[in-house]
Design brief:
Elements: H1 9-59, E1 62-65, E2 68-72, H2 76-82, H3 85-119, H4 123-134, H5 137-147, H6 154-161, H7 173-201, H8 205-213, H9 218-229, H10 231-246, H11 250-255, H12 267-276, H13 281-305
Antiparallel strand pairs: 1-2
Helix pairs in contact: 1-13, 2-13, 3-7, 3-10, 3-12, 4-7, 10-13, 12-13
Length: about 325
């Protein structure tokens, strides 16, 4: 005869009561540790991002220079912006740069990623492609500025040697923005290619095997399979590249300083001029806030129209 014993009800409840408080204490301890590690980053984010954003939003409704306290002027800065031809020119120049930079960079990055995926997956090749991105923007701009110099640049020396007249890459209004865009494409192309390459590795091999069985060629496979399955990655790349392109500043500041004849005066450089050259901080803050709104709207439209959260891979 087997006899089973059960713990008294009060003893069972006491055991559960001792386990629950210990679990709660453990979770509270983990929360405290997490808060300690997050505190420095949170403090830096608030001090260097949140507070300047709020301060800039306030200054956009004021007339402010370093010589006097901010004076509230309502929407005067925004009305002034509507009639500012330099602001609209800077916006048009920025859009021109963004279109060239995103278009060329994305096409080249996808091509490089496909070559890496098909031919080699060597870590050495990936590191070599990423090297330009690891160089500071200012250094890249200076090196290309010397290489593309009209008189002593190695590029124009080579053009002269093959019988082509030298080109004023930074001095011609037709060449200036494409040249600046080309410099930044060269620097960021490898990083973008690695992002696309990572997206290619997430596509199952059986999809390509099925396409090969059906007799699909390389070109048809690329358009019908690879690109649709890469859409989430490409949307992320396009959004990040678009935001970064609108923030172009250092290459222009090092090479052209907005010239020739405002041909490269992008919106970021114009904001810088207004704030730190003319000390018109209120108007510069208003332009920065408008730029923030433009970036937010364009990013949301890209995410919505390109269906960033959806995948064609069932």
């Amino acid at each position: 005869m087997t006899v089973t014993t059960k713990a008294p009800p009060d003893r069972q409840h006491s055991r559960g009561d001792t386990q629950a408080p210990s679990a709660r204490r453990r979770s509270l301890g983990d929360l405290k540790v997490a808060m300690i590690f997050l505190a420095p980053a949170t403090l830096g984010f608030v001090v260097f991002y949140i507070w300047p954003t709020l301060r800039g939003a306030y200054l956009s409704f004021t007339e402010y220079s370093l010589l006097s306290a901010p004076q509230f002027n309502g929407l005067d800065n925004y009305r002034r912006m509507i009639h500012d031809s330099f602001f609209w020119n800077a916006l048009v120049v920025t859009v021109e740069y963004v279109v060239i930079n995103i278009g060329v960079q994305t096409v080249l990055a996808v091509g490089i990623a496909m070559l890496m995926y098909r031919l080699t997956k060597s870590i050495t090749v990936r590191a070599a492609i990423l090297l330009p991105y690891l160089v500071a923007n200012v250094v890249v701009a200076l090196v290309w500025y010397w290489m593309l110099d009209f008189q002593v640049g190695i590029v124009n020396q080579g053009l002269t040697w093959i019988g082509i007249d030298p080109v004023a890459f930074f001095g011609d209004s037709h060449w200036a923005i494409p040249t600046v865009a080309g410099i930044n494409v060269w620097r960021h192309m490898g990083y973008t290619a690695l992002l696309v390459f990572a997206g290619l590795q997430t596509i199952p091999s059986y999809v390509y095997e099925a396409a090969e069985v059906d007799g699909a060629g390389e070109w048809k496979t690329f358009w019908r399979i690879t690109l649709p399955l890469l859409r989430p990655v490409l949307v992320m790349v396009l959004v990040v590249t678009m935001i970064g392109s609108f923030q172009i500043f250092d290459t222009v500041a090092v090479t052209t300083q907005g010239g020739p004849i405002n041909a490269t005066r992008v919106i970021y450089y114009y904001i810088y001029e207004r704030a730190f050259t003319r000390f018109d901080f209120g108007y510069a803050s208003a332009m920065a806030l408008v730029l923030f709104a433009i970036l937010a709207v364009v990013s949301l439209l890209q995410l919505r129209l390109l269906r960033a959260r959806e995948s064609d891979l069932a």
